[in-house]
Amino acid sequence: MNWNNWFRQVHRWLSIAFTLAVIVNIIVMVQEKSAVWIGLLGLLPLGLLLVTGLILFVLPYATKRRGVGGIGG
Q: What pLDDT is attached to residue 73?
């Protein structure tokens, strides 16, 4: 598995973790329980999503600049 596929897989799993964290946060808010750490639960996967998303955004430009791979090549 190359780096591109690895980052894509991690990004997908992080999006699932973030979605679950948001759902848990909504459930806790509806029950009117106050737990600050539940509100912050989604920030870790969100930060990692930002990092992996930026890496996935830059990867095509980095490979094009190195002259490796690309579309049609």
A: 44
Q: Which of 32, 31, 27 is nearest to 42 (CA)?
A: 27
AA identity, residue 27:
I
d(CA 17, CA 12): 9
Q: What is the mean pLDDT of residues 3-19?
A: 91
Distance CA 61, CA 53 (A): 14
Q: Taking the chain, what is the end-to-end CA distance rounded to the nearest angstrom?
A: 19
Strand, helix or coil for residue 4: helix
How far apart are alpha carbons 59 and 8 in whole angstroms? 11
Chain segment 32-60, per-residue pLDDT in tens:
777 788 778 889 999 999 999 999 999 88
Closest CA to 62 of 2, 4, 1: 4
